[in-house]
Amino acid sequence: MQTEPQTRHSRTLPELRFSLNLLYMGRLLLGMKSPSFTTDEGIDTFDERIEDVTDELVSTELLHEAAILAGDILPVTTSDNEV
């Protein structure tokens, strides 16, 4: 089974993707509340944080791809469970 090479940035990518998904869910849930409970300030705060995490995710993905192209790949370790 061919897997993507692992770099020092590989562990950060799933965490950033998960955080971004949680922010989108929070934004969606906030938008579903009645307008009297939501404020533009609260929605703007979510939007700013989504933008920050998106920027961080994109830069980490670029660093990951650059590390692969530069050959800065972590050694492959096999566990006892793999055949």
Textual characterization of the structure:
With 83 residues, this protein is mostly helical. Helix content is 63%, strand content 0%. The chain is built from two helices and no strands. The longest helix has 31 residues, at 40-70. The chain starts with 11 loop residues before the first helix and ends in a 13-residue tail after the last helix.
Please compute the radius of gyration using only Cα atoms.
18 Å
Question: In percent terms, what proportion of residues is strand?
Answer: under 5%
Quickly give the structural class: mainly alpha
What's the SSE pattern? HH
Give the fraction of residues assigned to helices. Answer: 55-70%
Q: Mean of residue pLDDT?
A: 86
Unreliable stretches: none
Overall number of domains: 1
Largest sheet: none
Q: Specify the number of helices.
A: 2
Global geometry: elongated
Got a strand count?
0
What separation lies between the terminal Cα atoms? 11 Å
Structure in a nutshell:
The chain has helices at 12-32, 40-70. By secondary structure, it is an all-alpha fold.
Provide the descriptors you would attach to this structure in a database record:
mainly alpha
Question: Would you spell out the secondary-structure blueprint of this structure?
Answer:
Elements lengths: L11 H21 L7 H31 L13
Helix pairs in contact: 1-2
